[in-house]
Structures are given as structure tokens and as C-alpha cells.
Amino acid sequence: MSQSGSSGFALKRSKPNAERKNKSGFTAQTGGVELSAPPVALKENITMNIEEVLSTTHRISPRERVPFHCACCGECCRHVRQSVPLESPDVFRLTRLLREKDKGIICMDDFIARYTELALLDECGYFMLMLKVTGVDDACIFLKENRCMVHAAKPRTCRIYPFVAGIGDDGQPEYLVSREKEHHFKGPVVHIKTWMKRRFTEEDKAFLRMDLSSARDIARLMRRIPEFHRQQAMLLFWRYKYSDFDLDQPFLKQYAKNLQQLKAALALLAEQP
User: Fold this and answer.
1) Strands across the sheet containing 173-178
2) What is the per-residue pLDDT across 146-156, written as a single tens digit (0 to 9) for each?
3) pLDDT value of residue 169
4) What is the mean pLDDT of the chain?
5) Which carries the bigger pLDDT value, residue 29 or residue 115?
6) DSSP labels, the chain
7) Pairing label, strands 116-120, 46-47
8) What is the model's pTM?
9) What would the pLDDT profile of 154-174 be if each residue is shown by its tens digit?
């Protein structure tokens, strides 16, 4: 039985001991399933410094009010190398937007290959995607004349700036504010709860809860996988987290299913010699 998603990954039953290399030179084969993927993200080895990213933030209450005004200067979109993470729903939404404008963007793999690089979060192979930058000022690749070219589907990190949102251990939203660009903190007062209600969607929250609840299990499974199979594990991670989605179907149901399939596939790989 063969399957192919809108992602561009090819997943099919392979003959015993069959081997096929994908474009990146990796062969991903586990449990009789052969997986091929485009090369771009897996060629990168960028280490993301979480402590550095959070060094200019502090916790705030949703009841607080903060003076903030966007001057449309583009400063928050410059010097952002390794600073704009792309979560699965970000890639999903951006690909949907760009496929209407660019014939070269058909699936999420097309977007990933052109606009992202990989940030390794753990030596076990757990990674996330980061938005590429361009120019001597390391500007966001979508910044043109101080305007965002993907405003309608901008990543959550950008959408809620200068605030940061996450889900705490109790399952409730937590908020921080980034004071890196101090000149932004003047003008009209922003009510945090209202700001987040408009920009931090219920889909975002549901995704983060699913992602948080599965992250430890996935990392634990990836640490069990022998070094020999590490690249295969990364390809599986890529497929289920960032690639195997039907862009014309709701995101969350697909993501929940993909997480279960990812954990099952990693568990099988962890048992292989």
C-alpha cells in the first residue's frame, strides 16, 4: 500500500532490505516503510540559544497594560537570525497563503526548502524550523520596504510581538514581554488580554497543549534511537511535524493524528538494532 501526502514526502511499502536514497543522501527506512524527503532543512545544523532569545523578556499578567506602538520601521524584522521559530501551524498557514501567489509553492516541503533552516534543539535530533534571513542586516526574508509580505499568515511569534505566549504546566496560557526594542514602548496603552484575544488564537492554544504534552515522549523516544538511525528519526520527525498535511483540511485533527503516528514510528525505530 502506498501513500503520498500533499507534503511531497513519499511513503511506501518497500521490499525487504530494499534501499533508496532521497535527495539529501539519506535513506529513511523503518518497519518496512521507506521515506524520502527534500534536502534543505536536514543540511543545516544551527543551534538555537533559548537562553539568549529569552534574555530580554519578563513575565506579565494578562491584566496588565503596556505602552506599545508599531512605528512600521521594520526594526523588529531585522537582525533576526535564528530568532523567528516556525511551528507546524505557521508552516501550514504560510504555505496555504503562498501557494495562491507562487506557482513554485505547492506543498509544505516547497515552503520549507525555500524559506527555512533547521535549528537543532537537542543532540538526539529534536529540531525546529527557523525563518531564513537575508541581507547584511539579517532581515526577515519576507520583509520588503519595511512591510511584511505575508502579513495575513505571519508566524505566531511575529503576530503577537512584542509579547511571547506559551502554555504553562497547568495547561493555561502564560505571557511574557520582550523589551529588546525599547523605542516601541511608548504611545497608546495595550491591554494584554485584549491583544492576545485578537492574535493568540484558540487553534494556537490547542496546538501548544498538544505539542507540550507530546514533546517529552518524543524526545525520550529519539534519545533511545541508536546513532546509526538518527537521520531516519529526523526524517520521521520532519514528516509528521512539518510535512504530511493536506492543506485543504483542518490543521488540528491532522496534527493530532500525526503525533500519534510519529510516536509509533519512533518506538519501532528505537527497537531496531
Assistant:
1) 57-60, 173-178, 163-167
2) 899 999 999 99
3) 80
4) 81
5) 115
6) -EEE-TTS-EEEE--TT-----TTS--EEETTEEEE--SHHHH--EEP-HHHHHTTEEEE-TT-EEE-------GGGSS-TTT-EE-HHHHHHHHHHHTTT-TT--SHHHHHHHHEEEEE-STTS-EEEEE-EETTTTEETTEETTEETTGGG--HHHHTTTEEEEE-TTSSEEEEEE-SSGGGS-SSEEEHHHHHHHHS-HHHHHHHHHHHHHHHHHHHHHHHS-GGGHHHHHHHHHIIIII---TTS-HHHHHHHHHHHHHHHHHHHHH--
7) parallel
8) 0.81
9) 999 999 999 999 888 888 889
Q: Which three cell numbers stand for residue 111?
A: 515552503
* CB hemisphere CA count around 65 (13 angstroms): 6
User: Residue 258: how many CA atoms within 13 Å on its side-chain side?
Assistant: 24
Per residue in 230-239, is it b (16+ CB within 10 Å) or e — as a string? ebbbbbbbbb
Distance between start and end Cα atoms, the chain: 25
Q: How far is CA 20 from the centre of its chain?
A: 27
Do β-strands 2-4 and 10-13 pair in parallel, antiparallel, or remain unpaired? antiparallel
Nearest-angstrom CA–CA distance, 210 and 197:
20
Return the number of other C-beta atoms located less than 10 Å from residue 43's C-beta.
10
| Residue 214 or residue 82, greater confidence | 214
The pLDDT value given to residue 27:
37
What residue has cell string 513554485? 104
Separation CA 162–CA 107 (nearest Å): 30
Adjacent-strand bridge partners of 163: 177
Closest CA to 57 of 166, 142, 141: 166
**Beta carbons within 10 angstroms of residue 146's beta carbon:** 13
